Amino acid sequence: MTGSSSESPAQEGSETSLDPKDWDELRLLGHRMLDDMIDHIATIRERPVWQPIPDVARAQFREALPRKSSGLGEVYRTFTDFIAPYATGNTHPGFMGWVHGGGSVVGMLAEMLAAGLNANLGGRDHVPIEVERQIVEWTREMFGFPTGASGIFVTGTSMANLLAVLVARTCALGKPSRRNGLGKAGALLTAYTSKAAHGCISKAMDIAGFGSDALRSVAVDQAHRIDVAALRAQIRRDRDTGLSPFLVVASAGTVDVGAIDDLVALGALCREEKLWFHIDGAFGALGILSDEVAPKLVGIETADSIALDFHKWGQVPYDAGFLLVRDGERHRDAFAAPAAYLRRETRGLAAGSLWPCDLGPDLSRGFRALKTWFTLKTYGTERLGAVIKQCCELARYLEGRITAEPRLELLAPVNLNIVCFRYRSGDANEVNGEIVINLQESGIAAPSATMLDGQLAIRAAIVNHRTGIGDIDRLVAAVLEFGARRAAERPVVEVEAPPLAV
Questions:
Q1: Which residues make Cβ contacts (< 8 Å) with residue 187, sequence separation at least 6?
Q2: Residues 306 and 349 in one domain
Q3: What's the predicted TM-score (pTM) here?
Q4: Residues 323 and 409 reside in one and the same domain
């Protein structure tokens, strides 16, 4: 060596690097982790859908802040023993609670690759940004939006709906409102959605500064769709009192029963009244990939913006929400914020404008687009559309089982993949609430519960590509068993359940 006798520690690598000292040892454990997770998914039917969390498992996550290092193998054992067995369960074909997608091994592998790249998709010139732009173009094509439409990945439709409200707000008040606030004009703005809409719409109005009272909840018809005549009358009343309607939020798959609003009529009304037309299509919008469901979504192509989740019917692992906006310029007007540290260049790493940070609030953004790209490329939209069709066919099969069983009662029309029903009983709400919990704790199936016109419903949302007729039959058998046990209508007949994981 020549020169100074003191050698910089950075010359041979940082002494504080978090990389392993033995890459081969890490590789072996990494392969084991991957094999274990593939086995976990491949054998998912051998385990309960969900199981109660024992005290010993909860206790593992009440420890003090770790100050010293632990071996990766030891940390992994805690995962295998106390995390994996007590997850939500939505990868299981018997999971029918809420609208959670089942994910796929392809998406899991893509998520691993994305984590390895550790790319920040806030901006700059790198191919991960191009992957997200590709998804934007594919999504634009799916919904028939024009060239110049824009899109952005977010955590989920709750966030996408909030961004849509902010875009509509800027469109109504102009770009100066981003500096000056809502002002007097903003205080008069009113938005509209149905009583069946997701609660995140009200929350979005709150966060956007309007207050939830500025959102009008309009009555629904017998099919649980927004009453367009009632909406028109409410808009007229608000204009007559000096208010300024600016936004209508339609539902493409309501949270309770999967109803799709009359998108053609709503689009026409919004054009007539010069209102921003947004569609909350959290799971239902991707029905556009199914020849069976797509006709029910006619009119979605007229929207000003659409919110959806690829992690539901798209079967992409969580999270992969998305906002699509018809007019990309208006989208940029709502979020672009030039700053010296975000200076754009024509060459180098700071090239490649437009950046995703110009289309949303986040500068630090993960590579959600990669698992979505892998999913779309690997399976194709035709196969994903077939999954969606199957989900709807299973819902109709469940509907048939319910209508053929005198002890069960259908509580709402089956529009897509959501079936709301109950076990007939004198104290039906209490009994059905217990049935839902019994089902979840048994590990046989995991539906959720909701209230429809004062009646507690067992709500089965069929979203998982792994779910089959046998899973529906097991659900029905278990509902009848737990209902009979609770109502003491007949002797108990044991229902075969998967063993609890140990």
A1: none
A2: yes
A3: 0.94
A4: no
